[in-house]
UniProtKB/TrEMBL annotation:
<comment type="pathway">
    <text>Quinol/quinone metabolism; menaquinone biosynthesis.</text>
</comment>
<dbReference type="InterPro" id="IPR030868">
    <property type="entry name" value="MqnA"/>
</dbReference>
<protein>
    <recommendedName>
        <fullName>Chorismate dehydratase</fullName>
        <ecNumber>4.2.1.151</ecNumber>
    </recommendedName>
</protein>
<comment type="function">
    <text>Catalyzes the dehydration of chorismate into 3-[(1-carboxyvinyl)oxy]benzoate, a step in the biosynthesis of menaquinone (MK, vitamin K2).</text>
</comment>
<dbReference type="InterPro" id="IPR003773">
    <property type="entry name" value="Menaquinone_biosynth"/>
</dbReference>
<comment type="similarity">
    <text>Belongs to the MqnA/MqnD family. MqnA subfamily.</text>
</comment>
<keyword id="KW-0456">Lyase</keyword>
<keyword id="KW-0474">Menaquinone biosynthesis</keyword>
<dbReference type="Pfam" id="PF02621">
    <property type="entry name" value="VitK2_biosynth"/>
</dbReference>
Length: 280
């Protein structure tokens, strides 16, 4: 590999992805890890600045002709997710929001909210994109969407606001799980370096399995970096699913169909997976 370019691997810079990446060790000086928010990872992978990355499920769907999913890796839930929240000044059922501020750090959840607003509530609000600052967002809009660590902190502190967990609402609407993030490889990288990508895939699977079976390190890190009770973080990580199981795949396929029907995706999405011997 000395004559090859460095393989860059993108990690989501939110606690919800730590069970995949925390403690990850990769042999070889031709590999490097880059931690960013999902929207930046989405851009970097599409631009070829990364070869493998965790990314928003929506961004995978947009670029699925150039990408392959790494099997068995995701961030998803069946029901509550506890880090994707819609905050509003008034209840949505009785006082529908006319304007919603969307976090600029995600793609999947932004479009999940649009799907739920239109298909579940029958609403068509105006949307604006903003940096994830709840106070500033609510100065400009009736409701605000936050994800990841900012959403968790707002959930802890803003008891004056109405709060909807989007994972819970999606499950109520569809009966399905929801896949918020996947791990994907560029097709050109998979073709050029199948052995290296296979090694990275196995390392990620093993790392995830180890963290899921023993949450103590990621729980301790969360308490140290974000505060909160150990019991919250243990429940939080335990409620997420990281293995892209059939229920999560069903939810991802349904999400993509809704997004296409509502004009949020230009084309149908066919899920394609990396295999070291054969890419499907």
């Amino acid at each position: 590999m000395a004559d090859r370019q460095k393989i860059s691997i993108g990690q989501i810079d939110y606690a919800n992805a730590w069970p995949i990446f925390h403690g990850l060790r990769l042999d070889g000086d031709y590999m490097e890890s880059v931690a960013r928010v999902p929207s930046e990872l989405n851009r970097m992978l599409a631009a070829g600045e990364l070869q493998v990355s965790a990314m928003s499920s929506y961004a995978y769907a947009v670029n699925s002709d150039k990408l392959l999913l790494l099997p068995g890796l995701s961030v998803g839930s069946v029901g509550r997710v506890n880090s994707l929240f819609f905050f509003s000044k008034k209840p949505v059922d009785t006082d529908p929001p006319e304007r919603i501020a969307l976090t600029s750090t995600s793609a999947t959840t932004v479009n999940l909210l649009k799907i739920l607003m239109e298909s579940y509530y029958g609403l068509h609000p105006e949307y604006i994109s903003m940096e994830p600052s709840l106070d500033r967002m609510l100065e400009q809009a009736d409701g605000a969407l936050l994800i990841g660590d900012p959403a968790i902190h707002a959930f802890w502190t803003r008891k004056d606001l109405h709060c909807i967990d989007l994972g819970e609402l999606w499950h109520r609407f569809t009966g399905r799980g929801m896949t918020y993030a996947v791990v994907a490889v560029r097709r050109d990288a998979a073709e050029a370096w199948p052995d290296a990508i296979g090694y990275i895939h196995r390392a990620l699977l093993d790392n995830m399995a180890g963290n899921v079976s023993n949450l103590d390190p990621v729980v301790a890190r969360a308490c140290r970096e974000h505060g909160g009770e150990e019991s919250f973080w243990r429940s939080y990580f335990g409620g997420l699913q990281y293995d892209l199981n059939p229920r999560l795949l069903e939810g991802l396929e349904l999400y993509c169909r809704y997004a296409k029907e509502l004009g949020l995706l230009e084309r149908d999405t066919e899920l394609a997976f990396f295999r070291k011997d054969k890419n499907l």
